[in-house]
User: Fold this.
Amino acid sequence: MNAPALANTFDVDAIRAQFPTLQQEVHGKPLVYLDNAATSQKPQCVIDAIDHYYSLDNSNVHRGVHALSERATQGYEGARETTAQFLNANSSNEIVLVRGTTEAINLIAQGYGRPRLKAGDEIIIGHIEHHSNIVPWQMLCEQTGAELKVIPVNDDAELQLDEYQKLLSDKTKIVSVGHVSNALGTINPIKQIAEMAHAVGAVVISDGAQATPHTKVDVQDLGVDFYAFSGHKVYGPTGIGALWGKAELLEAMSPYQGGGEMIKVVSLNGSTYNSIPHKFEAGTPNIAGAVGLGEALKWVQNIGLDNVAAWENELLAYGTKRLSEFDGVRIIGTAANKASILSFVFDDAHAADIGSLIDRFGVAIRAGHHCAMPAMERFGVGATARASLAVYNTNADIDAFIEALEKTRNMLV
Ligand code: C6P
Assistant:
């Protein structure tokens, strides 16, 4: 994820103008939205696609023989095609549409891990993972007797690959590491992590929730076996996301849930399952969400993910400089390879107070443990304040944030 160059056609004002939510005032101040790692705002085309679907095409998928059902199916399956192309998957059959990253990781843990792992096997994760890449593995360990091992990080929140190497053995069955840390912004060297895991025969999963909004992802180049992301962080709606898995692994896996859509034949004596990816999509799916996701992925690809990465790198550098000049601030997460996250604490003020008071100046950030409590513990803090960037943010947003932070701090000390 080294910084690509920004095309001179990149026009942040034109991008920003496409977001209705950004055009409002909050507490009488222009909204400065810096909580993009929690969820990003949606461009008008995504809102319109969902509106169009419910206004004209609303129907159930795969079942009907009528025009609306065909259109709904085309919208839904079209989103799968777009997602496959977005991730550079071999085929759209490798894309399972799910609720989001959390569901995707649980699906792998239960669908892949549970029937295969046993006592004595090991699962490796990183120290600064989101809870959704920790808890499903802890549950799997409880169910199978496998053991969870953790790759430590250095003081810059970078994974220590020499320690990782020591953890790997023929006991290692699964390695699951986030592509980009939501709490601290570290970009992990997934390609290298995957190569090292494959050398001992382990299967590799990467949580791409925070990578897909900020950089081009090519699952084949990364060399992983599974990749998960959420639509709502990449300018799409909530309640939809995708799991990519290598076809042969998905084929070999058991379904995660039973019900309609995921079967071939059902009799009272037993059932046979549908082919991939449908065997993992029991029940009526989030059709409108998929339509919105497809539109969002096309929108961001149209800007160009290299442009997104280049622009956000400039913003991150500017934000880091402004924040480091601030008296009494400690930035947590100082990896050399980092994306779009400014996590920080003050010596003399609580992160939660900063988060709620800065809102009075129209600035939206997040404060808390960011669903990454082990990461907080590693850096000796209970919580951080976190400003997170998106492609529509500007240096002016960062200036407004710093100015509001000064006023907030003065109110607290
Ligand atoms: N992080 C944040 O504020 P879901 O909820 O399934 O869409 O995504 C979960 C998830 C998984 N992995 C990473 C790296 C994430 O950042 C998130 C969501 C949000 O940082 C909400 S806690």
The longest helix spans residues 67-87. The first strand starts at residue 25 and ends at 26. Residues 37-38, 100-102, 130, 132, 178, 182, 207, 209-210, 230, 366, 370-371 surround C6P (CB under 6 Å). The mean pLDDT is 97.
